[in-house]
Automatic annotation (TrEMBL):
Cellular location(s): Cytoplasm
Protein name: Phosphoribosylformylglycinamidine synthase subunit PurQ
Recorded GO CC terms: cytoplasm
Biological processes per GO annotation: 'de novo' IMP biosynthetic process
């Protein structure tokens, strides 16, 4: 699997994401947001967490206008895989690659702690290594993680089995406690929790490693 990890000014989880992907067996290239092309043969674009452009305007809104944005859209339109974690999820909604929006947390506070997630579907390239309904402990760190979507959009997510993860106990006001969603073709995933921060025993938990292993299985068997 060839993965391109994008860095924007203010990204701070890009290295951790690159390490998690590399340890899972991916060949990782780091891509600066001013690059207009992705490395040839890129399978997965990985958009990391952080505070791109200082979270000004709306989180991810300015990053979605970076020179690399067009290449990410083209990659997704061609059936390429895209993973957005935390700020990366916010960027993917701003790019229009995923529906809905990430609003300020209901409690108006930055939340930085471990959360219990429920794996809502294993029918995706990102979750196939988990068991249906499995509960996994993954860290969260955000102030704008309150996922909202209109009723029609929510119905589509449910009907099409596109809710990837929910919080076992709601933490930020997200509709239906949604923590991560898939695109219609299931090849784009955005999630607020940080699997790359739970991918090594030294992190205190390895529940996030299943996501990177799922991608490896998908892309080796593809
Ligand atoms: N860790 C992150 O990616 C933070 C995301 C975003 N800047 C927020 O606070 O909501």
């Amino acid at each position: 699997m060839k993965a391109a990890v994008i860095t924007f000014p203010g990204s701070n989880c890009d290295r951790d994401l690159a390490v998690a992907l590399t340890r899972a067996g991916a060949e990782v290239t780091r891509v600066w947001h001013k690059d207009e092309a992705l490395p040839a043969g890129t399978d997965l674009v990985a958009v990391p967490g952080g505070f791109s452009f200082g979270d000004y305007l709306r989180c991810g809104a300015i990053a979605a206008h970076s020179p690399v944005a067009a290449a990410i859209r083209t990659h997704a339109a061609g059936g390429g895989y895209v993973l957005g974690i935390c700020n990366g999820f916010q960027v993917l909604t701003e790019l229009g690659l995923l529906p809905g929006a990430l609003m300020r947390n209901a409690g108006l506070k930055f939340i930085c702690r471990e959360a219990v997630l429920r794996v809502e579907t294993v029918a995706s390239p990102f979750t196939r290594a988990y068991a249906p309904g499995q509960e996994i402990r993954i860290p969260v760190a955000h102030h704008d993680g309150n996922y909202q979507i209109d009723p029609e959009g929510l119905a589509a997510l449910k009907d099409q089995d596109r809710i990837a993860f929910t919080y076992a106990l709601g933490i930020n006001g997200s509709v239906r406690d949604i923590a991560g969603v898939l695109s219609e073709n299931r090849r784009v995933l955005g999630m607020m929790p940080h699997p790359e921060r739970a991918a090594d025993a030294a992190h205190g938990g390895t529940a996030g490693a299943g996501l990177f292993q799922s991608l490896m299985q998908e892309l080796v068997s593809a």
